[in-house]
Write a structure and sequence with these properties.
By secondary structure, the chain is α+β, with helices and mostly antiparallel strands. It is built from 3 helices and 10 strands. The protein has 2 domains: 30 residues; 127 residues, Rieske Iron-sulfur Protein (3-layer Sandwich), CATH 2.102.10. The longest helix is centred in the N-terminal third of the chain and has 26 residues. The N and C termini lie far apart (80 Å). The model has no long low-confidence stretch (mean pLDDT 88).
């Protein structure tokens, strides 16, 4: 007895082709519903808050980190730096702002600022200049240990990002 194998017919091909086109059509129809469940571009660009441990930062040290694609400086200020910043007369400042307004109460030793010069966005060098704060190598802006503009073309102080202390040694930026 010989067994016969059925050859595929044109009808079989049409069934498979119709099924494939139907599957692609269904996938195309439900894709907008699935993709709308993802967060929008503004939410993704906003970025999530960043937790940062302050414990390893030595007194006088400046640490750089990124949040939302922007450079952040975290400075552990010495008692002398704090005293000098607090005793600076506001009349000496181009953009007058008290040191106490730039740090959180009870945490004066920690300064958190954006790390770009407010003139043209260059990155200032830390522990530089006559005030031992930051000095912008591009155009000569000088900032003190509180991030306040003291000399040069920068129009404003280094901005403060939104942050909160989670404990004495941990902050959350954002």
């Amino acid at each position: 007895m010989a067994t016969t194998v059925a050859e595929p017919t044109r009808r079989d091909f049409l069934f498979i082709a119709t099924g494939a086109v139907g599957a692609v059509g269904v996938a195309s129809a439900i894709w907008p519903f699935i993709s709308q469940m993802a967060p929008d571009a503004a939410t993704v660009a906003a970025g999530a808050p960043v937790d940062f441990d302050l414990g390893p930062i030595a007194e006088g040290q400046i640490v750089k980190l990124f949040w939302r694609g922007k450079l952040i400086f975290v400075r552990h200020r010495t008692a002398e730096e704090i005293k000098t910043a607090e005793n600076t007369p506001l009349s000496d400042l181009k953009d007058p702002e008290a040191d106490s307004a730039r740090v959180q109460k009870g945490h004066a030793q920690w300064l958190v600022v954006y790390g770009n010069c407010t003139h043209l966005g260059c990155v200032p060098l830390g522990n530089e200049g006559p005030y031992h704060g930051w000095a912008c190598p591009c155009h000569g802006s000088i900032f003190d240990t509180s991030g306040r503009i003291r000399q040069g073309p920068a129009p404003t102080n280094l901005p403060i990002p939104p942050y909160a202390f989670l404990s004495d040694t941990k902050i959350q930026i954002g």
